[in-house]
Here is the input.
Amino acid sequence: MTSPKKPATPPEESGTIRHRIRALLLEGPCTSLEISSAIRRPEKEVAGHLEHLRKSLHAEGRRLVQLPAECRGCGFVFRKRERLTAPGRCPVCKGESISEPSFLVTGGPGPVGNPSQRDRGRAGTGGGEDCTT
Here is the structure.
């Protein structure tokens, strides 16, 4: 009896997980959920990969930019948050309806440039509309 063969890896899934995340974020801003569905990995794994990718990009002269989460209830923007996961509760209104932060790779060679200081802290500039999944 022969063991069942594993199906061939589709071409869009070639490369490491972090290479696939990097390519996705070079195209435009994406949330952790969008990244998770695009690479077919659990959302809980994405934050760890993003943290490692942040360090790798820094060595290349690029940056992983986090477009901040925003409370849907009162509009509070989580500008100072360093963690790559979405906050659980708003410190102002205590609401739990919070938009996820989006991520984007900037800097270095290529068409992607550094966003202006004005755009870095603006919530809603990367709600995933540019993310191709």
